[in-house]
């Protein structure tokens, strides 16, 4: 049996040392050292040995098993190191090559203006309020003193779903909803940013969808002079210190008196930027406020118009065409 073990050792050693790959090496391990391997087969005959020979042969078999296992481990490590080296060679990265750049986005100019306007008015104690874009005729018109046959409704040609449901034509319904939610309590100081919709032919200065920000203040003793001060503060912060402002008489069903607000541009003269006025007593009354006790003012502006004036944009369609050449200009604004 000693001779058979020595012969097995020599045969296995030669096979392991000359094996070509890791998979073949694992097959050799099973062949020689597995439960049904050749070494185990030889050891099954130990029962025929004398009591004196058994421990000698057992010790020899264990030594051979250990030597073969160590040799197999060394060959496994060699194959794994070679495989890793080949993988690293195939996957190596040339760090001198230029990197792959990914385009960096920017905040849309309309969102930039909205954020700036919100910051200005929040700094003056206003809250930001929002409401639904699909509105009822009551909140969009009637609660704002637009009666069913009121000619002013023609000023805001609308997208109706039903006779009583439409896409809002301004964000003024948010003011009414906020007043109702306050249930007669004051003060009310809100701005209402959001999208609005009107039937209009799209051109360089008009769009069927645009963005408005309206403001509302209701309290005891609110006056036209306070409205003037708030608007002048806003205009100087958005267009720069020293910007001249003027108020011109106008008409809106939901304010009385009503004014158009202009700013002075050295190159173009006076330019209208928003409308405003004292909240009409009927609007306050419908919302649950006693007009003999409370007064208020409201104002509304088109965000696109403010952005066009601030950034010198001549065509409103640039805001909606998603032209990256246009949008990239506002990365550093």
Automatic annotation (TrEMBL):
Enzyme class: ligase
Ranges for domain Aminoacyl-transfer RNA synthetases class-II family profile: 113-329
SUPFAM superfamilies: Class II aaRS and biotin synthetases, tRNA-binding arm
Subcellular location: Cytoplasm
Annotated signal peptide: none
Biological process per Gene Ontology, one example term: phenylalanyl-tRNA aminoacylation
Main location: cytoplasm
PROSITE patterns membership: AA_TRNA_LIGASE_II
Known EC number: 6.1.1.20
Pfam family, one: Phe_tRNA-synt_N
Cofactor dependency: Mg(2+)
Cofactor notes: Binds 2 magnesium ions per tetramer.
Binding annotation for Mg(2+): 256
Catalytic activity of the protein: tRNA(Phe) + L-phenylalanine + ATP = L-phenylalanyl-tRNA(Phe) + AMP + diphosphate + H(+)
Protein family membership: Belongs to the class-II aminoacyl-tRNA synthetase family. Phe-tRNA synthetase alpha subunit type 1 subfamily.
PANTHER family, per database record: PHENYLALANINE--TRNA LIGASE, MITOCHONDRIAL (PTHR11538:SF41), PHENYLALANYL-TRNA SYNTHETASE (PTHR11538)
Name of the protein in question: Phenylalanine--tRNA ligase alpha subunit
UniProt organism field: Paenactinomyces guangxiensis
Gene: pheS
């Amino acid at each position: 049996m000693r001779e058979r073990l020595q012969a097995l050792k020599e045969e296995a050693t030669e096979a392991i040392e000359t094996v070509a790959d890791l998979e073949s090496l694992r097959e050799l391990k099973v062949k020689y050292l597995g439960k049904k391997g050749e070494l185990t087969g030889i050891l099954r005959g130990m029962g025929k040995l004398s009591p004196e020979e058994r421990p000698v042969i057992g010790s020899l078999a264990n030594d051979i098993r250990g030597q073969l296992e160590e040799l197999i481990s060394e060959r496994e490590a060699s194959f794994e190191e070679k495989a890793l080296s080949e993988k690293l060679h195939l996957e190596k990265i040339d760090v001198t090559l230029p990197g792959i750049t990914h385009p960096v986005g920017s905040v849309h100019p309309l969102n930039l203006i909205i954020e700036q306007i919100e910051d200005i008015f929040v700094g003056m104690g206003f809250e930001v309020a929002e409401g639904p874009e699909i509105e009822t005729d009551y909140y969009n018109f009637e609660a704002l003193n637009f009666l069913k046959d009121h000619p002013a409704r023609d000023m805001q040609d609308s997208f109706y779903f039903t006779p009583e449901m439409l896409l809002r034509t301004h964000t003024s319904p948010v003011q009414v909803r906020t007043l109702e939610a306050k249930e007669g309590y004051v003060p009310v100081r809100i701005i209402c940013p959001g999208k609005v919709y009107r039937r209009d032919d799209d051109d360089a200065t008009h769009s069927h969808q645009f963005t408005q920000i309206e403001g509302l203040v209701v309290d005891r003793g609110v006056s036209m002079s306070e409205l003037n001060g708030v608007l002048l503060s806003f205009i100087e912060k958005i267009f720069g210190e020293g910007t001249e402002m003027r108020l011109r008489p106008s008409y809106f069903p939901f304010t009385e008196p009503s004014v158009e607000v202009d700013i002075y541009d050295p190159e173009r003269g006076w330019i209208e930027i928003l409308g405003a006025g004292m909240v009409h007593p009927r609007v306050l009354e419908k919302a649950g406020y006693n007009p003999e006790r409370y007064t208020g003012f409201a104002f509304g502006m088109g965000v696109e118009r403010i952005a066009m004036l601030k950034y010198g944009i001549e065509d409103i369609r640039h805001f909606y065409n998603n032209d990256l050449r246009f949008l990239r200009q506002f990365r550093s604004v």
